[in-house]
Write a structure and sequence with these properties.
By secondary structure, the chain is mainly alpha-helical. 82% of the residues lie in helices and 0% in strands.
């Protein structure tokens, strides 16, 4: 559980930094909303990938 919380915290920090650095002035979304969207995309993608790897690992044991 601690590893999951650490992962989520690090992903949130990376998301905020990434959105802050690569932000395009023409975007209509506020910084917070864009950072949350990026966090959900990255975090969700990594969690889905981890579940796929876990499932494949269990299937081939």
């Amino acid at each position: 559980m601690t590893k999951l919380l650490l992962f989520l915290l690090m992903t949130a920090m990376i998301s905020l930094v990434h959105v802050s650095v690569t932000r395009i002035e023409e975007r209509q979304l506020p910084l917070k909303k864009e950072a949350v969207r990026y966090f959900l995309s990255v975090g969700g993608g990594i969690v889905i990938l981890a579940l796929i790897v876990q499932f494949l690992s269990m299937a081939f044991q």
